[in-house]
Amino acid sequence: MQRRSLLSLFSLFFLWRPHAQAATPPSIWLANSYQAHTDLRNFWVSEKFDGVRGYWNGQQLLTRGGTVLHPPAWFTQGWPNTPFEGELWAGRGQFTTAVSVIQQTQAVDADWQKLRFMVFDLPKHTGTFTERISAYETLVATLGLMWVEAVPQTQVASAAMLKQLLHDKVSAGAEGLMLHRANATYKSGRSNDQLKVKTYDDAEARVVGHMRGTGQFAGQTGALLVETRQGQRFKLGTGLRSEDRQTPPAIGEWVTYRYRGLTDKGLPRFASFLRIQPDIEKRP
Q: Which fold has domain 201-276?
């Protein structure tokens, strides 16, 4: 993944404060991880975009954590009062660009022109995912805006075909793939009706402490103490770069880490810091 100077990016995280928070974060549908036994004939497949999830509630554009974003007026002009969601995406390998843009409290037109809103679902539509595909494609076509695109969906017949598609997409710079069960209705929370497919496992944890570094890391952060959503705590040091150690994620920030399976105690094996997750509400 191409990145700007992480030091300047982290400065944006600490200096940025949203003007307002939504009363409650949107109730969104979240994915579990793909398992090899999944019957792929029942699923639609799309690219997993490496951006920031956005939720249009009919009046405001929010992150999944409920932070109100401040795009230029033209970006959402003509959007319906019906909720829809997608990914605020600057292109493959441009995650940090998307983050820096959505953090603006005073929108800069030239920066927001770098983003596309990749629409992938309609939360209030009562139909199956197959029906919602047609509905969101119609919505996007009706809007007729260059920066609002419908996420293409396809189907594969076997695990071998899925593996090849994953290889092709990742080789081209994609983050991975998403699977949606064809007959699934929209629901809040995690579900096996929506699956993410990557070349590695990842998860999110909240920073609850900073461990002092020793040796070559003396005077810096040696590791982050993080807590999973299940309340399990562990140290996360591998993957931190020198900028991360000098200016670590603040306590309460959520971070994404990679890992390779779980120990018998349910802790991630070979956990490695990946990045700050900006679209989850910070908690002290």
A: OB fold (Dihydrolipoamide Acetyltransferase, E2P) (2.40.50)
